[in-house]
Amino acid sequence: MLDSENKELLEIFFEEAQNLVDTLEENIMSLEDDPNNAETIDEIFRAAHTLKGGSASVDMMELSGFTHVVEDVFDAIRDNKLKICNDLVDLLLNALDVIKGMLDARLNGDVYLQDVSELKNKLRRFLGDEHQTVSEISLENINDDEFLLSSRELSDMCEVVGLGQKVLKVSIYFNKDNPMATIAGIQMFQALKDLGPILYTVPNYEQLIADKFLRRVDYYLISLNNNTIEEKIKLSGVALSYAIDEFDIDSELAKTEAIERNTVVYDTLSEGKVRLSNDELISLRERVGDAKLFEVKLNFNKDNPMSTISGLQMLQALKSLGEVYKSIPEDLLADKFFDFIVYYLISDTSVDSISKKVDLSDVVVSFDINEVDLKNIKDVNLNTEVGSYASSKESKKTTVNVNLIRIDSKRIDSILNLVSEAVISKSTYNQINSDMTSFLYSFNYFYDYQESFRNSFLVDLKIIFKDMGLELESSLENQIANLVEHKLDRTLQDMVGLRDLLFKILQDSRFASGRLSRIITDLHESVLKTRMLPVSSIFSRFARVVRDLSKKLGKIVELSTEGEDTEVDKSVIDDLVDPLMHCVRNSMDHGLETADERLSKGKDKAGHIILRAKNEGNVISIEIEDDGRGIDPDIIRQKSIEKGLIKEDMVLSESEILNLIFEPGFSTASQITDVSGRGVGLDVVKNNIKKLNGTIVIDSKVNVGTTFKIKLPLTLVIVQGLLVKSGSEIYVIPLNSVLETHRISEENIKLLENDHEVYNLREEVISVLRLDELFNINNDQNLYEKFLIVISVNDKKAGIVVDSILGEEDFVVKPIKDKYASSPGIVGATTLGNGKVVLIIDVFRLFDLKDMKG
User: Which residues does UniProt call coiled coil (predicted)?
Assistant: First the structure.
């Protein structure tokens, strides 16, 4: 394991590993339904390949070695050497569980200790004899050819090695008589890895830890000091001899690719397929013209003294009959014996003439000669396998440029907190504008008063003099008039200028405030989007769950999803998995019938579960729907009475009865299973959803199906809300629950016999909740007119009565701590622009609060 200095690298690896595991699971599941999907196979292979390489880079060799086996399986599938079947999918999913276990162990600071050899052997048996287990290989008699790296491994090495770095191949021969002989290979691995990253070992890491003696091990590592390596080897005391060579990856890759191409081609020859591509055949049709194209396959005599040059001899012989376009294999100059060779001859001769020419040779033991029909190229069974290697190599060069930056979620939270503070500052700015507007109104009133005083001053003065029995002389009147006009007019003119200036400042402030508001809103939405994840990130997990449970329960179940692109805040996503999991398991266990039961009801033998998500403004709606038995409300009611949850004479709607299943300890299951039905769970689901400020209800019809409906806020950080006042207290009501508002009088509210207040909303009677009564507010304002805010909770409407509505804004939700955290009916607090702290109402809990109040 890497040291603490590489903690960041480990965090990156674990995050990527989880994404890769999710990709593997999702695609393996889809491969079961579409086994020939080349894109899916390639994506699985890439994920396994990346996971293998990544785990090796952080020294998780047990994970790298195990994933290597999984990668080999998909390599064989990709090359059409292995077919997908249900048993193989089961095995691969089991392997994926092991990979998850290995990752979890490392996350907890441990190493996965369970024996996985049996699972690896099962995977290898699917691969055939060429992928033997460690115990099946005679390791003491490995020849040099078995120490060669494959082209894929060499290509991987090219990707890892940086510019200016060199790879050393360290070959070590071990002493069998050493008491530690069976662990010498892994001992040397531990010693050498301190000098630089070990890219590959031959035999591989699994064989090094297999507690068997290995005569020789090749280590490929990046290192700068040969002398240090020699010191490590000598100090180990387990090496008989060793060799250290600089390894030319490019040169070795070219050689290996040539060998593998010949191997692929030669395997193809033995299957008797046409060896030329469609493009070659089309070009040859023009090139051959009036002549003919012959395919000449010759089988050679190995015991002939000239066997290694037999192919070259026959090449010269066939050239006397025409042009030899191609031979397979092509490298006939090599001093190597080929069991058979295929030549393509362009000639105007006949099959008989070629046969006579070949038959005269003593190096050929048998032959097969055919004329290739170039007129019907489309009917030729082209060998796609010959070109598969080249195409796969080309695909490795294809890259997708994605501009991604990895950011710690804590940094995003920090930015979001700053944005939240900006929202509060925006509210402060709006409050200042509001105060300035009020001041301007007051200023205008004062100006009007001064102007009125100016106009009435002389008249009022004359009246005063007259009441005193005095007469105001005209000269004095003129002096006073001039004085008033001079002084007051100037004051009024100054006031006009000041008023205009204040009005302009207010206009500019409003414009700047509006612009700031838009910027903060855009910034807020942008930052929120960085925290948003599509629900597909959790929906994708349920394909495996449904598959495993359907087998366990003996049911046929099909899962489909809708609205996977709907995005939810990451904090919500993390806490949503368990509630959804329980609902799905409940549908699988209790809701859906067996195939025979469904057929007897006239349904498809396969049950269906739909996971559906959609965005409804500031609310996310998630549904889990099945087409199973449904829930009988009569049974629910009877069980609830037996458990003392309701009284026998209580009048409840069908919806209210169905939602009793969310009460603690409720269960209608006659048997306890390990899938569901323990009598706990749905109440926990409801509580978990409540913690997310959400709601969950159930809708069901007997023999039609059941739907769990979950509604969640888009984000838990900032909400749009109505600022309302009741008595002397101010509250925020989240807008996502508000349907409409009405100005009403007390006469509009009716009192029923049970002291239950209601309001007639367009012929629909809804309950009335008085905010001052619910929160014990001292309200001595006996207002004739009030406001009714109509809310919707779990498809049920109600009206909240308040004294006044102060406005609509964005509010930053701050959690309530300590003794206030469990306050019923309150979801959080926020700070207004004037610095006042107000509470945010939890409308979903208001009904519970009213019941508590009696």
Answer: 7-34
Structure tokens at 72: 């080999």
Identify the CA nearest to 310 among candidates 338, 286, 284, 282: 338
Question: Which is more confident, 757 or 128?
Answer: 757
Query: Any idea what DSSP says for residue 265?
Result: H
Contact between residue 731 and residue 724 where contact means Cβ atoms under 8 Å apart? yes
What pLDDT is recorded for position 602?
A: 92
∠ CA(62), CA(65), CA(71), 5° rounding? 140
Find the angle CA(110)-CA(113)-CA(119) to the nearest 5 degrees.
Answer: 135
- How many helices (H) and strands (E) the chain has is answered by 25, 26
pLDDT value at 34 more than 80: yes
328 neighbors 341 (Cβ within 8 angstroms):
yes
List of residues 6+ apart from 543 with CB closer than 8 A: 25, 26, 29, 30, 559
- Return the SS3 of 545: helix
Residue with tokens 């100005």: 743
Give the span between the Cα atoms of 843 and 619, in whole angstroms: 14
The two tokens of residue 607 are 């049950």
Please tell me the pTM assigned to this model: 0.56
> What values do phi and psi take at 4, rounded to 5?
-65, -20
Neighbours of 209 (CB within 10 A): 16
- Of 656, 707, 708, 661, nearest to 682 (Cα)? 661
Contacts of 641 (CB under 8 A, 6+ apart): 647, 648
Quick one: which of 436, 438, 430, 412 has its CA closest to 516?
A: 430
Q: How far is residue 685's CA from residue 675's CA, in Å, rounded to a whole number?
A: 15
Q: Could you tell me which of 256, 192, 191 has the C-alpha nearest to residue 221?
A: 192
How far CA 426 is from CA of 158, 503, 834, in Å, comes to: 55, 20, 11
- Identity at 82, one-letter amino acid code: L
DSSP, collapsed to helix, strand or coil, labels residue 733 as strand
| CB burial readout 469-489, b (16+ within 10 A) else e | eeeeeeeeeeeeeeeeeeebe
Query: Contact at 8 Å (CB) between 841 and 733?
Result: yes
